[in-house]
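_Backbone structure tokens_
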Amino acid sequence: MKIKSLLSVLAIAIGLSFNSTAEEKHDHDHAAKAGPTGGKLITEVEPHVEFFVNKEKKVEIRFIDDANKVVAPGAQVIAVTLGERSKPTKLTFTKEGDKLVSDKTVPEGNDYPTVVQIKADPKAKPVNARFNLNMTKCPSCANAEYACICEHGEDEKDEGKKAK
């Protein structure tokens, strides 16, 4: 009787192990993607929003369809707040061709808390995306850290905790 119980427990454990592996693979299949310009892709809205900091340190916003192609801006309203919490920088946007461009540059420094507020139209309820704007180039992919598509971020955090 004990052997049957032990075999049953072992069979359940093996089944859970295979299920866990399948879930991990599923998550990997849906790994983060960058936008077509190499910016951060915000997928909580349709069309998706690409957040990209250009060479002049202005923020460019592009609207992206499910095929990762740029679509023309419509009536969307975008506002970005970033920088030091005691003195945040607020960006507003104007349309330039197929994108929206910020009125100001991002503040000097790096790794600022950033909130992108997206409204489908001026009267719509806003959707907020929050992340840290880390402009450092990722060592593993071609993007800046804020738009990184690698999975090294958690490993680095864990290593930092071990070092303390």
